[in-house]
Amino acid sequence: MEAAVIVKDLTKVYGETTAVDVVSFSVNQGEIFGLIGPDGAGKTSIFRVLTTLLLPDGGSATVDGFDVVKDYSQIRSRVGYMPGKFSLYQDLSVEENLNFFATLFNTTIKENYHLIKDIYVQLESFKTRRAGKLSGGMKQKLALCCALIHKPTVLFLDEPTTGVDPVSRKEFWEMLKQLKAQNITIVVSTPYMDEANLCDRIALIQGGKLLSVNTPGNIIKAYPDQLYAIKADNMHALLKILNGYDEVLASYAFGEFAHASFKNKAVDLEGVKSYLTKKDLTGLELKKTGATIEDSFIKLLKD
Amino acid sequence: MRTIKFLLQKEFRQIFRNRAILAMVMVMPVMQLLILPLASNYEVKNVNIAVIDNDHSSYSQKLISKITASGYFKLTGYDFSFKEAFKLIESDKADLILEIPHGFERNLVREDEQKLFIAVNAINGTKANLGGVYLTGIIKNFNADVRVQLVQPGKFNQQPTITIASSNWFNPYLNYHVFMVPGILAILVTMIGGFLTALNIVKEKEVGTIEQINVTPIKKHHFILGKLIPFWILGNIVFTLGLIVSWLIYGITPLGNILLLYAFIAVYLLAISGFGLLISTFCDTQQQAMFVMFFFMMVFILMGGLFTSIDSMPDWAKFVTKFNPVAYLIDVMRMIILKGSGFKDIAKQLGTIGLFAVVLNSWAIINYKKTS
Asked: What pTM value is reported for the model?
């Protein structure tokens, strides 16, 4: 089975900044592929090239076997794109927006209603409301409906959950899972590391360069060191001390804990604890912990 | 076809939901046509004049009362020296100074000749110019009166004189409303056609909706047509409203064929909307589009022959007006409405505007890129 999206040595330059720096990856059919990286990593540029809105400066890319430069018109009728910024007509109602985009793709709501049914039922009661008056989560649902209405084979979602509340975010990923079951390939970008685990495969991207492409599980498994979560009453002092401790390989703040790995694989925890206590730290807590995508990302960034 | 139908449906929905645009389309033509022609009047009245009468004779008194009785002048100063009178000009209380020399009456009767001195404040060019002309006219008239009294009958026709009588065609009473209304109508149509089209596409860019449109398989010319047609229709509505207002308020009805007028407007609206589209393809925000459009509109209107006649412009300016669509429209409007010109008379203008329409729209379509 041929890959749904193939990106080869893709490069995009804006003036002096290289937004996408010789990036290659491929997305298998029917999988959820995540582009994970901070703001300005080049995610949106990759999306815009893949949806034929931007011409690449180097390399090539195909979507569904069609070249993004040569066969752009084929791609346009085949992919669904949901830009990061809400870009439906705010002064048209929910139904009118959906109808309008269905027509542009030469189809009708009826024809592909089965695809959007699960999402659209939640919007049905707001059918006549103007899109601009919807809540953030509702807007995302409507945008997803509009991107799906022509039964695309590949769906591109650029930061669909940015600025959406946690409950709506969870719902949104549930919906993506259902779409995946209908054999739609989904390429999604997000700055949230916790969403990476929900993808089948992810690409970690930073500064226009790919750091790693793998399944979330493999990326975590590939983490070489044993991590320890450390907590103290004075976190600021703790982080400072860990940074200056020569036994420590890496240390950084991670939520309410500090994550640290040590040069010696069989480090003496009691020794560490007594070292920290000597530095006047109180309320110490020290335990082993597993690596997460975020740990992997930080590690990859440092290497 | 189905796509175009839906594009139009969408566009009209948005227009009807935007109260500001609707108000602009309906109220603007009526208000502007009601106010502007009444306010913009070339006839200069109330020219302030200061008189220095060094003669104090019955002739000088007669001349002064003739001037004040003309209705054009207001006597704001009656002084004894030029210095005093000049102060009035400096403080903007007088526009003109007329100095009557000492011995005005005596010399006029004895030597058949006398000189008067007129000083004009030229800061307000139009007022100064016209005030001077009016005053000269009145003095000439006074001169003729004096001749009748002084010259003996019998000798009357010995000196040949040429009298000029003029009559104003197509606007016999030199009524400025008749002259202004078609011009203002032309500008209204231009504003609606040009501004609204330009702002509309740029708004889609600004809000980001164009991004979503660009990934659809929609054809470029479909999209452009979907933007052109609504504002073409709106332009026609505004024009019709304007015609009704000028008929109801000013009693101006086109002398020529009204269908010919609409035919020209139809082509013209295509051209000016095309211009708006072209501007919109170069701009990214509504602010930019507004400023660029405003720049061109100023040039178009000021060099369109509405306020100043194109014929009196220098050659380079005349050449520039050849690329000014508004100039053609104002010209044709006046021709058809006031003069009753037929198709043959406006064929040249129609052809030029048609060419404008083709060039501007093609350029806009080529320049509208779905991919950046």
From this structure: 0.76
Cβ contact, residue pair A83, B212, below 8 Å:
yes
Q: Tell me: the pLDDT tens digits for A46-69?
A: 999 999 999 999 999 999 999 999
CA distance A118 to A303: 44
Q: With a cut of 80, say whether residue B42 has pLDDT above it.
A: no
Distance from CA of B275 to the nearest CA of A (A): 25
Residue whose structure tokens are 């590391």: A193
Report the chain B residue with the minimal C-alpha distance to residue A106.
B3
How close, in Å, is residue B16 to chain A by CA atoms? 10
Domains of chain B are 2-40+173-367 (no CATH), 47-150 (3.40.1710.10)
Nearest to B211 among A53, A55, A79 (CB): A53
φ and ψ at residue B116, rounded to 5 degrees: -115, 155
Q: How many other C-beta atoms can be found within 10 angstroms of the C-beta atom of residue B110? A: 10
Please give the interface size between A and B, counted as residue pairs whose CB atoms are below 8 Å apart: 72
The segments of chain A whose pLDDT lies below 50 read none
CB proximity list for A55: less than 8 A, separation 6 or greater: A49, A69, B371, B372
Q: In this structure, are A211 and A231 located in the same domain? A: no
For residues A201 and A27, what is the distance between their CA atoms, to the nearest angstrom? Answer: 8
Other beta carbons within 10 angstroms of residue A98's beta carbon come to 23
**The last residue of a domain, from among A192, A215, A238:** A215
A33 and A105 within one domain: yes
Name the token pair of A209: 């360069």
The strand ranges marked E within chain B are 47-53, 73-79, 96-100, 117-120
For residues A199 and A83, membership in a common domain is answered with: yes
Q: What pLDDT is attached to residue B36?
A: 79
Chain B residue with Cα closest to A50: B215
Domain final residue, candidates A215, A243, A274: A215
Radius of gyration over every alpha carbon of chain B, rounded to an integer in angstroms: 28
Q: Side by side, which strands form the sheet with A32-36?
A: A79-82, A154-158, A185-190, A32-36, A201-206, A209-214
| Average pLDDT of span B142-163 | 68
Span B4-33, average pLDDT? 86
